[in-house]
Design goal:
The strands form two sheets. Strands 4-3-5-10-6-9-7-8 form an eight-stranded mixed beta sheet, with helices on both faces. Strands 1-2 form a two-stranded antiparallel ribbon. It has three domains: 80 residues, Winged helix-like DNA-binding domain superfamily/Winged helix DNA-binding domain (Arc Repressor Mutant, subunit A), CATH 1.10.10; 110 residues, D-Maltodextrin-Binding Protein, domain 2 (3-Layer(aba) Sandwich), CATH 3.40.190.10; 107 residues, Periplasmic binding protein-like II (D-Maltodextrin-Binding Protein, domain 2). Strand 7, helix 7 and strand 8 form a beta-alpha-beta unit. The chain is elongated and about 90 Å long. It has ten helices and ten strands. The chain is of the alpha/beta class.
Length: 318
């Protein structure tokens, strides 16, 4: 059972007076009289059954109880102020802040963003590249909830890689993802030509570790199982935390990466990277556009969502 709290005004009076060690300054800060502050403190002491201040000469001194409570009271009022600010409608300044993973930002969003600039010249876009925070002890929905709360803390919208457990938010699936080996064309004609999946045993494996976020199974293990390939040691190879890094390693012929072909579209189009095998494995995870429902009332947010969904619908398959 939640303990009943004393009146909020008396707690605010305590926090202000304790922080400034002055009833007079607390009264000025809260726009009341010093007598009102004194009355609220006395009522709170009676309610709690403990002294909170001691008179020392002409000044005030906190008791041990007040000293212990002050940091948490200050923190609590900061949290309350932030919560109230979040409930107020945000002025539509024409500014849009987007939180997005570095790989998606550089490989997919940035090459298309000029189209949004042209369509919405009055919107100032701010891109915040972030990596996800993972609580590996939590369930999928707990991980998703913690991630979206963190990414939307100071952003209007977020583009997240996940399973779509965003029940408290408006979310749109952008497009399905597939997984496939990707490499430099140099490896197809090298000392150990890469012609069949079994030939991977002779090549360095490049690991995109974003593939282990949910079920602990690596991208390489997922693809090799779907291909029916055995005898390839997936414990070896180099590891990268983001798909963009794994793709750069593959472009430099450092090995074969198992990751998302959609993020390598530009390199695949010009032949800098190739898909050595035809099999692409569909994934349950995808990229999602996520935002609070109320944010869509802002024209800048609504325009970005509409534009992004059109771009996602036009996404070519690889």
């Amino acid at each position: 059972m939640t303990e009943r709290l004393p009146p909020l005004n008396s707690l605010k009076a305590l926090e202000s007076a304790a922080r400034q060690l002055s009833f007079k300054r607390a009264a000025e800060e809260l726009n009341v009289t010093p007598a009102a502050i004194s009355h609220q403190i006395k009522a709170l002491e009676d309610y709690l059954g403990v002294a909170l201040f001691r008179r020392v000469g002409r000044g005030l001194e906190l008791t041990a109880a007040a000293k212990a409570a002050l940091p948490r009271l200050s923190e609590g009022f900061d949290v309350l102020s932030d919560a109230v600010a979040r409930m107020r409608p945000r002025p539509d300044t024409g500014q849009l802040t987007v939180s997005v993973a570095p790989s998606f930002a550089t490989r997919w969003l940035m090459p298309r963003l000029h189209g949004f600039f042209a369509a919405q010249p009055d919107v100032d876009v701010r891109i915040t590249a972030r990596t996800r925070l993972i609580n590996r002890r939590g369930h999928d929905n707990e991980v998703e909830r913690a991630t979206v709360e963190n990414w939307l803390e100071d952003s209007d919208v977020a583009i997240l890689y996940g399973h779509g457990e965003y029940t408290d938010y408006r979310f749109d699936k952008l497009f399905p993802l597939t997984l496939a080996p990707i490499c430099s064309p140099q490896l197809v004609h090298g000392e150990n030509p890469l012609r069949e999946p079994q030939d991977l045993q002779f090549h360095q494996l490049v690991h995109d570790d974003s593939g282990t976020l949910y079920d602990g199974v690596s991208f390489w293990d997922t693809w090799l199982k779907a291909a029916g390939v055995e005898g390839v040691d997936t414990s070896r190879g180099s590891h990268f935390s983001q798909p963009v890094l794994a793709l750069e390693a593959a472009s430099d012929a450092l090995g074969v990466a198992a990751t998302f072909p959609v993020l390598a579209a530009a390199e695949l189009a010009v032949g800098r990277l190739i898909l050595p095998f035809t099999l692409q494995v569909p994934l349950q995870s995808a990229y999602y556009l996520v935002c609070p429902e109320a944010s869509l009332r802002r024209p800048a947010v609504a325009a970005f969502r509409d534009w992004l969904l059109v771009q996602a619908k036009q996404q070519a398959a690889y």
